[in-house]
Write a structure and sequence with these properties.
The protein has 278 residues and is an alpha/beta fold. The chain is built from nine helices and ten strands. The strands form two sheets. A six-stranded mixed β-sheet has the order 6-7-8-3-9-10, sandwiched between helices. It has a four-stranded antiparallel β-sheet with strand order 2-1-4-5, covered by helices on one side. A hairpin with a 2-residue loop joins strand 4 and strand 5. The longest helix is centred in the last third of the chain and has 17 residues. The N and C termini lie close together (12 Å).
Length: 278
């Protein structure tokens, strides 16, 4: 089915593209999860990706550092075309920090050791330098005083902040966040979002899959709404969240921002020819 695609909006971060995605397709067997995605993220830009479950948001993010191998299309991250079969993917990934829904900390290692082990083994930093970098990043997320603690001794919010500090300790040029607050109790969400807001203010390039609409509205330079494997609508937070143009975006936001208005049996528009993005 052919679609008339709008030109990909230029990144608003003020620099060259940190991430450039062209014609990205990802299929799992006969199921096409991503359908001809074009997207750029500029250096220093914060792009939040929103949409219903199953829309392809996390798959898109995982393709950016090749945790999922694209079926077709190209992805360039910085100077590396990561979809090139000859790319040194380990080298390319060193510039990409990723924070998952689950914290993925080593339970048998202290917080400090969780932050230094990759530095010493991957970046080959001396232990003293790795410790200095780790402590600086723990201070950055407000947890320097818990350096000797073990993950089980921390709250979920603290563990996620440690996971962010661990990624930062590898000196990434950009950060990918895959629903970083979805596994947290509601009262712990704010502390993680505060750290992410701080990174945005520092100019870190960030691509964030999130269901936190207030965060997207406050922090994002650009919001991308996905559904059915397509980018349906994108623009500034004021445009996409404040004044959506596509019926599918309006339907999604109505349910997310005013869940009490959802009636039993309500459904999103089916992704048929009439509702696919034009």
């Amino acid at each position: 089915m052919s679609l008339t695609k709008n030109p990909t909006p230029a990144p608003t971060g003020g620099g060259a593209a940190a991430i450039s995605i062209r014609g990205l397709v990802k299929s799992f067997g006969p199921i096409e999860v991503l359908k001809n995605i074009d997207l750029e993220v500029g250096a220093g830009e914060v792009v939040c990706v929103i949409g219903p479950s199953g829309s392809g948001k996390s798959t898109l993010l995982r393709c950016v550092n090749l945790l999922e191998e694209p079926t077709a299309g190209t992805i360039v991250v910085g100077a590396h075309e990561i979809t090139d079969p000859d790319v040194d993917i380990d080298q390319a990934r060193r510039q990409i920090g990723m924070v998952f829904q689950q914290f993925n900390l080593f339970a048998h290692l202290s917080v400090l050791k969780n932050l230094t082990i990759a530095q010493t083994k991957v970046l080959k930093r001396p232990v003293a330098e790795a410790t200095r970098v780790a402590m600086a990043n723990l201070d950055r997320v407000g947890l320097a005083h818990r350096a000797d603690a073990f993950p089980a001794q921390l709250s979920g919010g603290q563990q996620q902040r440690v996971a962010i500090a661990r990624s930062l300790s590898m000196d990434p040029e950009l950060m990918l966040f895959d629903e970083p607050t979805s596994a947290l109790d509601p009262e712990l969400v704010g502390e993680v979002l505060a750290v992410m807001k701080g990174l945005a203010k520092e100019g870190m390039t960030m691509m964030v899959v999130t269901h936190e609409m207030a965060f997207a509205k406050d922090v994002a330079d650009r919001v991308v709404f996905m559904d059915g494997g397509y980018i349906v609508e994108e623009g500034t937070p004021q445009q996409v969240i404040g004044d959506p143009q596509h019926e599918r975006t309006k339907s999604f936001l109505a349910r997310v921002l005013n869940p009490t208005a959802v009636q039993e049996g309500d459904q999103f528009p089916a992704p048929d020819q009439k509702t696919e993005p034009k």
